[in-house]
């Protein structure tokens, strides 16, 4: 029984962002556990043993639709790992990849294709832990019914905010959405959980380092470990939450940050991202800071 506790043998698993970082590590583990892995990413996925790689631009609705046309009708587990930092992409592209694609895939496809006993794991961020505090800011997005309505809900912020704010806002929105879905899809026997990664050594490390204000500042967001996590250290919790061994686990926000979030709760360190997304003064200050960082490089 313990040998097969994960229960992935023969299961259809969809992993977004499977070409690098946490997504690639997740796909590799799932393949080892016997899953039929379908990899969605803009860049080619080279993980040996996957069932199929489907080139997908997760920031574009038509590309997501095309991807799901190639996926099996039955999907046992979905892992929404893909994400953009906003350091190299515009606000809307970042937001659509980090939130809209997950929301759209769930509403349009996953709710019909995942059977009872299936699972969904969204990858948010420790930057999304304050979603409940700023719930009112997120509700226009959460209440949107179409991809176009989501974009309309954020277009005002996209015009005035630095693109890294899209990352923060999207992570809060996906955390809020996941909470709602854990209750809604739980009625159908589908589990929904969220992993909240801390600072991790992925291909986007340099981007997050720049946004944080340097290597030392990024390390301060890695809890008390004094180092960045490896992609594998994030992938195992992701895989764990989607597995049969967690059959009674749903609605969980799993902080994987070596006590960083707990330190903030205990007031042992300042939560630098615990700020409103729609406050004009905050947005202006962030925009100025971002421009200064760019000039200093």
Features:
297 residues; alpha/beta; 12% strand
Describe the structure concisely for a colleague.
This protein has 297 residues and is an alpha/beta fold. It has helices at residues 21-32, 61-70, 91-113, 135-142, 147-160, 164-184, 205-212, 215-219, 231-242, 260-265, 280-296; strands at residues 12-16, 36-41, 52-55, 77-80, 119-123, 191-197, 253-256.
Overview of the structural elements:
There is one protein chain. This protein has 297 residues and is an alpha/beta fold. The chain is built from 11 helices and 7 strands. A 7-stranded parallel beta sheet has the order 3-2-1-4-5-6-7, with helices on both faces. Helix 2 runs parallel beside helix 3 (91-113) and helix 3 runs antiparallel to helix 5 (147-160). Mean pLDDT is 90; it is low at 293-297.
In terms of topology, how is this protein built?
Layout: E1 12-16, H1 21-32, E2 36-41, E3 52-55, H2 61-70, E4 77-80, H3 91-113, E5 119-123, H4 135-142, H5 147-160, H6 164-184, E6 191-197, H7 205-212, H8 215-219, H9 231-242, E7 253-256, H10 260-265, H11 280-296
Helix pairs in contact: 1-9, 2-3, 3-5, 3-6, 4-6
Structural category is: alpha/beta
Runs in which pLDDT lies below 50 for 5 or more consecutive residues are 293-297
The fraction of residues in strands falls at 5-15%
Strand order of the largest sheet: 3-2-1-4-5-6-7
Helical fraction equals 40-55%
Q: Measured on Cα atoms, how large is the radius of gyration?
A: 18 Å
Span between N and C termini? 55 Å
Mean pLDDT: 90
Order of helices and strands: EHEEHEHEHHHEHHHEHH
Secondary structure: number of strands: 7
Characterize the largest beta sheet: strand count, sense, and whether it forms a barrel: 7 strands, parallel
Task: Figure out the total of helices.
Answer: 11
General shape: globular
